[in-house]
Amino acid sequence: METPSFMSKQYNMHLDFSLALGASFTKWMQALKEKKILGNTCPKCKRVFVPAKPFCEICFEELKDWVETDGTGVVESFTVTYQKFRNCPEPPYVVGIIRIGNAGTCMTHWIGGLDYKHPDEIPEKIKIGMKVEPVWKEERVGDPLDILYFKPVA
Ligand SMILES: [Zn+2]
After folding, report:
1. pTM of full prediction above 0.70
2. Is there a domain that residue 3 lies in?
3. Is residue 9 part of a domain?
4. How far is the CA of 43 from the centre of ligand 1 (A)?
5. Half-sphere exposure of 59 toward its Cβ, with a 13 Å CA cutoff?
6. Is residue 137 part of a domain?
7. How many CB atoms lie within 10 A of CB 74?
8. Distance 62 CA to ligand 1 centre (A)
9. Residue among 133, 110, 134 at smallest CA distance from 122
């Protein structure tokens, strides 16, 4: 069987753009300034959304009821990155899919607070279901990166 060959080209893109956040995501982001991770709840299916959304994509109900979580979550999935990438931490670093509280959705963020000196050991240090908590920046502006990273709960 012949091995297929493909052309490869390198492109460099630099995109600067603004995004209209809408009322729900604006409220969610503003709460981050106060070290609060909010969620909003669907009145029909009762699912909690973290980060907040304007409507439930299953029921199409508007999400007007807000809840304040304690900020802790569990790691649902993660990946270890060994390559440098623009606007990301120095490798190796870990990107986690984190479920905050009893949310029906997850958020993506860094997982830190672990010894990454031996990169090959990282996957053994992070477990699915591991409880994590946010480590906040001293000065917050209302942005998901007001959370430096999530660390394992001691
Ligand atoms: Zn719903």
Report:
1. yes
2. no
3. no
4. 7
5. 16
6. yes
7. 19
8. 9
9. 110
Tell me how far the alpha carbon of residue 22 lies from the centroid of ligand 1, in angstroms. Answer: 19
Count structural domains, the chain. Answer: 1
**Residue 123 in domain:** yes
Distance 75 CA to ligand 1 centre (A): 23
Task: Spell out the per-residue pLDDT of the chain, length 154, in tens.
Answer: 677 788 888 888 888 889 899 999 999 999 999 999 999 999 999 999 999 999 999 999 999 999 999 999 999 999 999 888 888 888 999 999 999 999 999 999 999 988 888 878 888 889 999 999 999 999 999 999 999 999 999 8
Diameter of the chain measured on Cα atoms: 60
Distance between Cα 98 and ligand 1 center (Å): 20
Q: E-assigned strands of 4-55?
A: 38-41, 48-49
Dist. CA 124 → ligand 1 center (Å): 36
User: Which residue range is the domain that position 37 belongs to?
Assistant: 22-152
Q: What separation in Å is there between the alpha carbon of 100 and the centre of ligand 1?
A: 18
